[in-house]
């Protein structure tokens, strides 16, 4: 059954209009629940192993607050939201602007993570095999970064399509679904930031 | 209901009845022959933790049996009473959609049963896991290995393997044995059903359990957590000794191995043993053999079994074990040392002197 | 009163004659299909193949254990057999077969033409199927090129650190991890699809409060899959990192914790039991009312109990870990949570009883299996209560009592209900009835075999027989019991072979079923058998929980009582 049939207002025997939720939003919500369960397990592992490493380096010695990257990633939530609302008003230029800045901010975030990892590996000799801190840190932050990469690929695709003029107001719901994923990735970062850099340091 | 459907059920009785009679006859005879008792029967409790579990199990079993009889009986009654009969009218029965009072009653009654069971369970948990350790308790460290048990008595200075000796505990003057358990490799589980419930033996973790058998005897069990190829032959033997027996056993186990062997064959075996790879894994106190990977052999000959329980400790079995452990216990981590027949003979002769 | 748009309009009773096609065309048709019915059938077919494979593994296990000190298979082979049997049955029989039924039935029952995401549906199926093939490829590739095949031998819950590289060299453990991981991705995809379909594609008038209970249970099951499979996936990623990148999640030598794996696994593993059993409830919820000729008793209570079971099942996992040494406080909490889950489960049993009460029960094969389900599930629940009393569990855990208990759930409840579902919906899928006489032979052989095996299997557990031992010595009081258990296994196997034969034979020889052979009440019986690829020619409108009852009894429709 296509979506359009379910949105036609039908009033049968005095019943209310038959409207059902959008399947894109529901599907993404389900995916987010499943993904959240995965992240919770990695966060639990991080917290469980906090301070249990048998050897150094410890988070206190080597971690620094990634303020700049965090600001970039969190503000990209606003830009992607702007892109969606612009598209809803059929404002393609605004949408391109919003998507472009989202992709840029996301890429900057990834670059700061890459730089942080390079610093940890090269200057402090901390790898995933070093100790429990390395194990849990790289896997949690890495899992999040993987999700950022996936989100960036999809946003870049949307950005490219928008640049070619293939995106219209009719696609605003699809873009909204994509933006939900991106908001989720941002929300996860807030948790990771709190656990790894604030509580765990 | 369509009449065609009703006709289809007419033929089922014959095969069903034939099968039922045959099978029940068979089950009846087979089960009657099975011995009612087992050396590892959890209901044949021989120490306090096992006794308290039997008490709780009896309660739980009777409650669940009661529920089964009531609910199963109602089900059976309904199935017979309300079966479709050929003489029934074709009208559908009265449609009943639910009843709040009835639903409430069969929500509340189970809740009350659950609360009752929960409280009695909690009492046993606290009585086993949350009671203080008496000063008279004996401490034993249990270390699980693939596929054998190491026992260390830190206060007595004894190290042994596979056969755990503990003193009996007089209820008026309790001397329970506290087992501090950990593993050298993978997860195992210590289960002697007549003494207590099982407790997992996990690497990088210290678990504790206690037993206090009042009667002397041999209590059997085995590893209950899958730990690799030979999980099946990682048996447990717990000897509850009278205070005198235990003191004598402890005194003997504290001694180092005898230095001067009168038997020349055994003396030669000792030289071969000490110059072969055996000493990389095994300890014989008083010699240069101090390996920790395999069982301590200082008093090997004083044990009833080898290979962690499944094999009787006779010179023939011992010789064949040393020749190739994988024949008797495939997957055992001790390799075949490829010794020649002469070396096998003399090493066996030496090991049998390790009383 | 049914309105002007009756569902009957959709029915076209003329048999369709299809032109003969090349084999390749047929294969191409099935491989590229996104039709929920075909995907559902592929799920079921693939699960049945694995059911036979894992069943043969079970038979080999039973031959080995039939007598003490047996040398039928080596310990290495035995350990692989039980690992493969467990993993296959849970991930490649249980999950796919239930998803197959869900895929087939949910859209039909809510009046939809397909799932919400048909291509994701096909992807989920093929990724799960690939997982199963990967698992069995380990028999060839498990030791890499330097050795003969070696399937995984770590047990289906793969406790750390037995899975570490040092204790499990070679690649068999990796095949296990990847297979389970892929099956998890497929499960999440299908569950997502079922939930979205249920929420977004219901036909007009199909309010949540009017959905068939089957759909409700699949909705709860889908929600559980999201929450439960995630932790398993995460744990598998950690295990792969440990094995390939040298991290230390479960490396006890570097301060890692073996118990953490147990927690992560059972956070998945216990809800998984409910993921498997909820669809079995679903089948019983549909079959029992139809063959009792009465509406389900207490629909709102049934829905509430299902949702309640879903939530409570997330907080009971550590009852698999009473012997780990959680301490008195931890044990007490999990005892309570576990015992509480028996309340909503009890409500279900009582409601089924009340549905039967006052009905006119027709003992056709689907109903016979449901009756067996009721008794067997009752017993499984009661042994579950015994196991939830932690001190009792200190004796019973990891013994044959536990094996008997969970096979009572998996075989006595889930598989039994599944057989009922096969007989019930087969006419809808193929247009032909399954043979009733063969069905009764199947039923009695299977049920007698089941009770021989699993009733007697409880006793060696009480007599100290631990699980996963490849042999045992005589004189422990286990010998005769194990022989009976093994014989019962073979009786069940004969029953299942009759079932498979019936399944194949009835496809061409069965009586023509018509669209509604059972005089049932849910929407799938309003379309032709087999249903056309578009399901409903006209989008149906429903006014009550039993739309077909309303049509058949215009003088007394359900909609009057809502």
How would you concisely characterize the structure shown here?
Helix content of chain A is 75%, strand content 0%. Chain A is mainly α and 201 residues long. Chains A and C meet through helix 1, helix 2 and helix 6 of A and helix 5, helix 6 and helix 7 of C.
Q: Largest interface by residue count?
A: B-C, 109 and 116 residues
Strand order of the largest sheet of chain B: 3-2-1-5-8
CATH C-level name of the domain at 138-254 in chain B: Mainly Beta
Main β-sheet description of chain C = none
Annotation, overall tally of beta strands of chain B:
12
- Strand content of chain C is under 5%
C-alpha geometry of chain B: elongated
Mean of the pLDDT scores of chain C?
92
Count of all domains of chain C: 1
The whole-number mean of residue pLDDT values of chain B reads: 87
Listing every helix as H and every strand as E from the N terminus to the C terminus, the arrangement of chain C reads HHHHHHHHHHHHHHHH
How would you describe this protein?
- The complex is a heterotrimer of chains A (about 200), B (about 350) and C (about 550).
- By secondary structure, chain A is mainly alpha-helical.
- Chain A contains 7 helices and no strands.
- Chain A has a single domain, classed as Four Helix Bundle (Hemerythrin (Met), subunit A), CATH 1.20.120.80.
- Chain A is elongated.
- The N terminus of chain A is likely disordered.
- Chain B has about 350 residues and is an alpha+beta fold.
- Among the domains of chain B are: about 120 residues, Immunoglobulin-like; about 90 residues, Cupredoxins -  blue copper proteins (Immunoglobulin-like), CATH 2.60.40.420.
- In chain B, about 40% of the residues lie in helices and about 15% in strands.
- In chain B, a hairpin with a 2-residue loop joins strand 1 and strand 2.
- Chain C is mostly helical.
- Chain C contains 16 helices and no strands.
- The longest helix of chain C has about 35 residues.
- The N terminus of chain C is likely disordered.
- The chains are: A mainly alpha (about 200), B alpha+beta (about 350), C mainly alpha (about 550).
- The interface between B and C is large, with 109 and 116 residues.
Question: Features of this protein?
Answer:
heterotrimer, A: 201 residues, mainly alpha, Four Helix Bundle (Hemerythrin (Met), subunit A), elongated, disordered N terminus, B: 355 residues, alpha+beta, Immunoglobulin-like, 3-stranded mixed β-sheet, 40% helix, 16% strand
